């Protein structure tokens, strides 16, 4: 019995060691990222496409050409409340980080201290971004006004507050491949890059499993809002039956072909897509029309169905 207990104890230690190794953060080599030179002017477009200001400006802050990314917005989910951090170029933000550290946060979901970031920060989409684009994004961030606001902690209960467990989540649900593969035109491929990577549209428009992983088999078919109120619409051709021209017009002006205007979080998305080129908006529309049509799941009773959400 003593030998059996000793063997079990040894196996448990080995298993714990393997689990610790498997769940370790995996940043890209800093020297590899440091070799990239960012272009701040080009990074302005990447900043808009990635929607950084939508989450990281302080609540009720005015929209400006040079937003103050002080953080503080709260995002309520079934796993807890996540609070957007200060990512302005100040000591309280990312001012003291190296460019490579910011890039690893975006591309790998890893902090400068070597901790996993929660997937409420959409690194699981940004990880498909071109590292040069992210270098340009960082260069643009460095030009924005600093804020001395302290980042507030997330309000996440046990066991979700165990950061190391996010390494297991990454093993299960990290998506580094394109969802829509196959034979796409160059325009559709550009649209895929903007939708699946920079624009991270799937984070809101795709349903999730019980652990918060995206159900990519139902890609862009609509999902309950994480806050528990409202429903983000189906934007596959089965749900969004607009023409490409209609989609392009909405992404530029916010007006729909039904003589309505988008609101809520989608209005912030339009504020970003309006800064893209006509070609990029057309590419997004071409990609959305190429996505396989998937019928929407009916919203749960009492949740409503808002077509104004991102």
Automatic annotation (TrEMBL):
PROSITE patterns cross-referenced by the UniProt entry: CYTC
Protein name as catalogued: Cytochrome c
UniProtKB keywords: Heme, Iron, Metal-binding
Keyword set includes Transferase: no
Source species: Rubellimicrobium aerolatum
Domain Cytochrome c: 38-292
Source organism superkingdom: Bacteria
């Amino acid at each position: 019995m003593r030998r059996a207990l000793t063997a079990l104890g040894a196996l448990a230690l080995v298993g714990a060691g393997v689990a610790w190794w498997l769940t370790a953060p995996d940043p890209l080599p800093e020297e590899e990222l440091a070799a990239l030179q960012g272009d701040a002017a080009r990074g302005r477009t990447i900043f808009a496409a990635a929607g950084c200001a939508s989450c990281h400006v302080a609540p009720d802050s005015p929209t400006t050409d040079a937003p103050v990314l002080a953080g503080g917005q709260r995002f309520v989910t079934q796993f807890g409340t996540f609070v957007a951090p200060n990512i302005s170029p100040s000591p309280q933000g990312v001012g003291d980080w190296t460019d490579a550290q910011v890039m690893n946060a975006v591309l790998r979901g890893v902090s400068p201290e070597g901790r996993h970031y929660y997937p409420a920060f959409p690194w699981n989409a940004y990880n498909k971004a071109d590292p040069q684009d992210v270098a340009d994004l960082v260069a643009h961030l460095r030009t924005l006004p600093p804020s001395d606001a302290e980042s507030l902690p997330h309000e996440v209960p046990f066991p979700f507050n165990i950061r190391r467990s996010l390494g297991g989540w990454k093993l299960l649900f990290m998506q580094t491949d394109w969802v829509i593969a196959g034979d796409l035109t160059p325009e559709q491929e550009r649209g895929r890059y903007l939708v699946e990577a920079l624009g991270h549209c799937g984070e809101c428009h795709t349903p999730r499993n019980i652990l918060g992983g995206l159900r990519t088999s139902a890609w862009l078919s609509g999902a309950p809002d994480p806050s528990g109120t409202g429903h983000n619409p189906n934007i596959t051709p089965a749900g969004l039956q607009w023409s490409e021209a209609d989609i392009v017009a909405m992404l530029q002006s916010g007006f729909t072909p039904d003589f309505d205007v988008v609101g809520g979080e989608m209005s912030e998305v339009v504020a970003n897509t309006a800064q893209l080129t006509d070609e990029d908006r057309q590419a997004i529309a071409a990609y959305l029309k190429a996505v396989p049509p998937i019928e929407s799941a009916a919203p749960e009773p009492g949740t409503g169905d808002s077509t104004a959400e991102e």
